[in-house]
C-alpha cells in the first residue's frame, strides 16, 4: 500500500525542511520526501495549505487501563489521541493494578496493539504498587519495552529507594520520568497558594512543594547518571533548575503542559473542579517563565498529562473534585493558537517539542521526523481552521477540560500511524 501526500508544507526539525514537498509512504515507512513525486500510489491525499509534520509523541498520558476503564480505555484513549494528531503516547502506570512488572507491561502492549490506533508505550512504576516500599520489576519492564519508569501521581518520597531505582534504570538503559511533589508539604492543598485560594477559602499548594523535589531529583540524577525527565513543570524555579542542570551537562529534560503555559490561577472561575489538576495552575510569573523556557529551549517537551475522570468525579467543587484534566484532543490546537500564532514558537519549534524531542528522549530512532526511512507516523494539520473547543465532541471518555468553549485555530485533518490513515477529519 502506497500513500502519496501531495503539496503540503513539510516541517521536519531534524533535516530543517520547512517548505512545500510531497511525501510518499509505503507500508509503515516514509520512502520519499521530494518537491514533486511523479509516481503512482494507491491513495493520494491533497495536503495543499496544510502542514505535514511528524506525528505528535505525547510523553505523558493516563489511559486508565486496566482498572479504571470507566474513565478511559486503550481504545477510547487511542481514538482521542489520533484526533489530536498524536501517534505515540506514554501511558503512566497509575492504573489498577499498578503496572509494576513485566507481565503487566506485556499485557497492555498486546491489548494496545489491537485496540488503540495510536502507538502506546507503557511506562512502569518505580516501586511495587506505587507504595514506595520496594522497587518494582524494573529490569523485566525494561525488557518488555518500557522506555522509562515513573511513579507519576506521586513522588518516591524515600530518596534512598529512589536512588536505587534510578541506578537500576540507568543500568537498564531507560529514563526516569519524575512527578515532583513533596507530599509532606501539600497539607491538604487543592490549588495554587495565592489570594484566589484565600478568597475561595481553600488550602493552597505552594511552589516549593514542587521545587524541593525538582532540586532533589536533579541531584539524584547527577549522582546516578540516569536520564531524568521532569513531568508537568509548573513553576519559574523549576525552569531555572532545568537551566542549571543543562548548564551542568546533565541529561535532564523539562516538560510543560498546555494548561500550565496558558492559564493562571486567576482564570479559575468561582469554584470549578475542571480547573483542578496537579500541579495546580500557577501565577503570571510562573506562566511567563514556562513560555520563556519553551521559547529559549530550556524546556524541551510539550505533553498533555491527559488525565480523564468521570463526570461524577469532576463535577464538584475545587475542594472535592479529582485532580487532573484531559488534553490529547486539544494540545495541538492550543499550542498553535497560544504559542505559534503569537510568534513565541515557530512551527518547527512546535514539531520539535511535540515530536522530535520526545522521540530523542525516548530513544525512538525511527520517529519524530518526516524523512526518508522513518516511520510513517504523520499529522496533517490545517492552521487556517478556527473553531470552538466542544467537550461533547471528544472521543475520550473524559469531558474534564477547562478549555470547553475556547476559540482555537488548528485542525488535525489526517493522522497516519504506522502507514495507515487512522484519523480523517469529517470537515473538509
Ligand atoms: N495530574 C493530575 O492532576 N492527575 C493525574 C496524576 C498526575 O499526573 O500526577 C491523574 O492520574 O489523574
Ligand atoms: Zn504527575
Ligand atoms: Zn500524570
TrEMBL record:
InterPro entries: Amidohydro_3, DHOase, DHOase/Allantoinase_Hydrolase, DHOase_cat, Dihydroorotase_CS, Metal-dep_hydrolase_composite, Metal_Hydrolase. It holds the Pfam family DHOase. Catalyzes the reversible cyclization of carbamoyl aspartate to dihydroorotate. Pathway: Pyrimidine metabolism; UMP biosynthesis via de novo pathway; (S)-dihydroorotate from bicarbonate: step 3/3. It catalyses: (S)-dihydroorotate + H2O = N-carbamoyl-L-aspartate + H(+). Zn(2+) 2 binds at residues 152, 179, 232. It comes from the Bacteria. Belongs to the metallo-dependent hydrolases superfamily. DHOase family. Class I DHOase subfamily. Signal peptide: none annotated. This is Dihydroorotase. Its cofactor is Zn(2+). One of its GO terms (biological process) is purine nucleobase catabolic process. One of its GO terms (molecular function) is allantoinase activity. Substrate binds at residues 62-64, 94, 278, 309, 323-324. It comes from Extibacter muris. NCBIfam families: pyrC_multi. Residues 52-237 form the Dihydroorotase catalytic domain. Keywords: Hydrolase, Metal-binding, Pyrimidine biosynthesis, Zinc. Residues 288-423 form the Amidohydrolase domain.
